[in-house]
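Section 3.1: Structural characterization of target chains.
Under the original work plan, the team committed to producing a structural model for every single-chain target entering the pipeline before any wet-lab resources were allocated. The record below documents one such target. The sequence was received from the expression subgroup and is listed exactly as submitted; it comprises 93 residues.
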Amino acid sequence: MEVHLGGHLGFYGPGRRSRFKVHLDAETTLLELIRELGVPEAEIDLAAVNLAIVSLHEARVGDADRLDLYPPMGGGAPTGTLRLGGTHGHRGS
């Protein structure tokens, strides 16, 4: 199985690598695999198996799968009203 730990989750990979391979003898739950890898469940915001977003608590994975895990992401515009354009409150003539 190919595993990718996005963002700071790469810290938990073997040798602190974000991309690595894991051999699975049998299909298992995604949650069990995450626990075996030592990645804290609370730090995972998005999981994808074979490029499809899945539930941490319902998905199953096998040796031929690709797993991508991502932490919560931040950035972008603050919540609330976003003002675009020149000066605020100026109406120009």
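The mean pLDDT is 88.
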